[in-house]
Amino acid sequence: MQVEVSLALTAVAAILVLLAGRALIARVPVLQRYSIPEPVVGGLAAALLLTLARFGDFQVQFDTRAQAPLLLVFFSTIGLSAELRTLARGGRKLVILFAVVILALLLQNALGIAIAKVLDLHPLMGLLGGSATLTGGHGTGAAYGKLFGEVNNLQGAVEVAMACATFGLVLGGILGGPTAQWLIRRHGLEPRADAAADQGPGSLRTDERRPLSPESLMETVLLLMLCLGVGTLLAETVQIPGLKLPTFVWCLLTGIVLRNTLGWRGFYQVDGPTVELLGTVCLSLFLAMALMSLRLWELVSLALPILVLLSLQALLVVVLAVTLTFRVLGADYDAAVIAAGQCGFQLGATPTAIANMQAITNRYGPSPLAFLLVPIIGAFLIDITNALVIQGFLALPWFGF
After folding, report:
1. Could you list the residue ranges that cross the membrane (predicted)?
2. Of 204, 227, 181, the residue nearest 31 (C-alpha)
3. Which of 3, 64, 295, 350 is deepest in the core (most CB within 10 A)?
4. How many independent structural domains does the chain possess?
5. Model pTM?
């Protein structure tokens, strides 16, 4: 039996998933100790229950049309929180983080191909178990899976790609918090003294209530809708040769321009707490919908060699985050939070990275620099770079492209 859940009831289910995640974290000390995000805990629990129900011939189909606008609103709040002084402070570290991410992409694919050869798999399976799905996510994975199936007659490539992307999304949400937690405790790290003044979306504590007014809410909604409208228009009309920017990148850039243009000479000050609250809510709902809709049964079909490959990929990302990313970014609190974010976007997706950082900052304090750098890398630069890196590997002689 298949049940179709309406958009309104899907939203209800997502909120219940978030509340369930919060309750589970409060009652299971290990989840709280390692800062696992609420949407990840609740979403995976719901996905597991739905997967078990599927074996009893009961299927649920959620209406997830709200996911796209929720994501656009969230990235708009990131833009509306980005001041030029923060951008200037993050300039050098942005370049350093980008260089680390490029190295990680190269290592992901090199490791994937090497493990595939050792386990007697087609080398293309190594790419599907590399950055194509782990960093690229379901969309990029499906595209390359279809390509490999058509050009190289690689059987089951799309199915393997979807399963790898799902596996990465789950691990990205689970490993980020413990990684940053270990770094923070080992090195006795604390947020910068002036960090509270620069808080951005995702840094609202779960037990914190901020005063809101109808005026601030209405003005902030106006700005967010303007970001969505202008960002969508730019995505549809601006054509850059050889480069296709996702809509949410345009929304983020529009938010940055609005924040700093309106704030010039004190013309208008964006209400930070309201932006922060709306951004946190949208991110949480987006992740809850995404994770409770995961097709976990696809992981059951993964053969042992693919599971070995993906487990080693997860280990690689954590090791890189701890030994390289953390150190080259200054070995401070911001670097630890960014390491949690890297586990998210290098194994799963940018929203997972933000949720990881949110869970850490909710517990230890704000990190505005992390909430600035990770979206720029994870939502924009990494997709372009990943495509170039994959094409570079496909140009190797044994792939036939």
Report:
1. 6-25, 37-56, 94-116, 160-184, 217-235, 247-265, 277-297, 303-326, 369-399
2. 181
3. 350
4. 1
5. 0.78
